[in-house]
Amino acid sequence: MAHKRLLCIAPAHVDTDALLCDTMPDWEICSVTSLAEAARELRNSHYLVGLLMHDREQQRPGDIDTFLRRHGNMQWVGVFSPRDLESTPYRELVVEHLCDYHTAPADPVRLSYTLGHAHGWAMLKRRRQQLIDHGNADSPLIGHCDAIVRLRAQIERVAKVAAPVLIWGESGSGKELTAQAIHAGSERAAGPFVPINCGAISPTLIQSELFGYERGAFTGATRGKAGLIESADGGTLFLDEIGDLPKDLQANLLRFLQEKTICRVGSTRQIRVDVRVIAASHVQLQQAVDKGEFREDLYYRLAVLPVTVPPLRDRREDIVALAEHFFQLYASEKAPRLKGFSDRAISAILDHGWPGNVRELINRVRRAMVMSDGRLITPEDLGLTRGIPAPMSAALEDTRARSERSALRDCLERSGQNVSRAARDLGVSRTTMYRLLSKHNMRP
Ligand SMILES: Nc1ncnc2c1ncn2[C@@H]1O[C@H](COP(=O)(O)OP(=O)(O)O)[C@@H](O)[C@H]1O
Ligand SMILES: [Mg+2]
Prior knowledge:
Blueprint: E1 4-9, H1 16-20, E2 27-32, H2 35-44, E3 49-53, H3 61-70, E4 75-80, H4 88-97, E5 100-103, H5 108-134, H6 146-159, E6 165-168, H7 175-185, E7 193-197, H8 203-211, H9 228-231, E8 236-240, H10 247-259, E9 261-262, E10 271-272, E11 276-281, H11 285-290, H12 296-302, E12 305-308, H13 316-329, E13 340-341, H14 343-351, H15 357-371, E14 376-377, H16 379-382, H17 390-414, H18 419-426, H19 430-439
Parallel strand pairs: 1-2, 1-3, 3-4, 4-5, 6-11, 6-12, 7-8, 8-11, 13-14
Antiparallel strand pairs: 9-10
């Protein structure tokens, strides 16, 4: 059982020893007479529970509010005169910051009972917090459902070998986090982890970004530069959205995987690089191989160790724990009165399909923490108001599909049925373009 400690703030004329010691023999009590003194004590020492006996002479509501806001991680019990409790600022204080209050003169027995309860409450909260923080001390992946337990075991196994890994999963499901965990669990952990999003670098730059270039390789190359592969030497290279890698670079990458050497652009010198490659994709690469968009030989090279990250909707049991984790993580951005999710919010969270996966969850929770003006986050704060009538959403879906089809048709027409160019015009990757075309049964 943890030692119970109380920080008691009381006016100098109150004999706190006489008031508390008899009824609270198992507590260690530190008494101070001002908020400033209390703040000093809290800088040096840790308390779960505080007792604020209001001193009308010395403490203004604004000061108390500032103080309690700063120390909102403790459970506070207040003692106020009946007269104080009639005025709005004090009532606000009680509602915002205190877990309970008594009217002066406080009854020692009842007060000790309240403080004991506050301590028990604080312990429960702390335990939950520890579970959230350290639930899996050696994994950054939060969750206990079967799918995550399996993923964690897979990460552990894969981390120990040197072969390439191919991670598949929907956007925002945790592919990059998984790659980081593999790196961190490998013997390369002390080396660099270098992520590259193949879909985000322009096709004209990606060659020199990946492989580097020699001085004079092209106009403006006044100095040579190491590429990202070289900079990952001794560590892990994470190739995100590998499906977007242009075909000619797929050949170069394959050569690198086979020979473990690279040539900078504008040079024939072979440079040895010791890099472990982890690739990720949100599309099933096998399908891209079937369509001839992705080299089969490269696919087999990369997919030696396949890992699948399950979508959030298949991890129902973990969604609430994840939401609470992010709530705690962004707690410093939130209003201190915000205590958590309402029951309605929890059911809305469980009902939602989470197409954007964990990333969507993070965004919604952060947004809700800013938007909420109550003590608990509501479905409205999360933007998860159910009950949009079905016909309406079907109509929306229909409208959307129709406008997608017409945009695709227009762009293809303008580009002379050239898919790459049409994709560029639409601002999507070629992979996305093909996905859209097949979704709408269209052929260039
Ligand atoms: N199981 C998890 N536990 C904690 N955070 C997660 C988990 N899965 C994903 N995240 C977080 O969600 C966000 C999106 O994850 P990320 O790995 O970038 O997804 P992806 O690469 O699949 O798009 C990141 O901020 C990541 O830290
Ligand atoms: Mg990603």
